[in-house]
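Working notes for the structural subgroup meeting. M.R. asked for a predicted model of this chain before we commit to crystallization trials. I am recording the input and output together here so anyone reviewing the notebook later can reproduce the run.

Input as submitted:
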Amino acid sequence: MKLDPFYLIVDSAAWIERLVPLGVKLVQLRVKDTPDEALRVEIRAARATCERHGCQLVVNDYWQLAIEEGCDFVHLGQEDLAEADVGAIRRAGLKLGLSTHDHSELATALAAGPDYVALGPVYPTILKAMKWAPQGLDRIAEWKRRAGDTPLVAIGGLTVERIPGVLAQGADSAAVVTDITRNADPEARTRAWLAATAPWR
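Returned structure, recorded in token form:
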């Protein structure tokens, strides 16, 4: 499968409603510490927006809800992967993305036959405290060799200015959170990301 080179990650359906209409084609809804029913409302709203605009929605972590709500893509971290029923995810027809941070995690992820693997953090990130050091651009090329035909998503500290280096090293997609959601003008920054990733689209 081919991933869009611009992978937006946001924490609410409101962000999706705000930014997806600008031309975003791949978005992850990553909501933490929210009761299931509230999360279900978020997923439904996000899915409706994405369907209207031809955008691929990826639900983070909550694979049971993603199945129940008829979504078609879920992303799991390593801890979630260990607890998830990958067979159930596959039987429901969902695509699967997995996070990786080191060689053993990449091996674990690839053994699950995912539809993409994510590597991070590529650069220092302010989003959350990381026990892993920034991987740097060279690691992207190495990960891509190891992943082979499995699409590779780079994440962590990515900005518009860093996109060309990341994609030139072999990443299939560049994931972004704070460079857009903490920007003074998220719409303008989203358009800048769309323009910067256009040569790889």
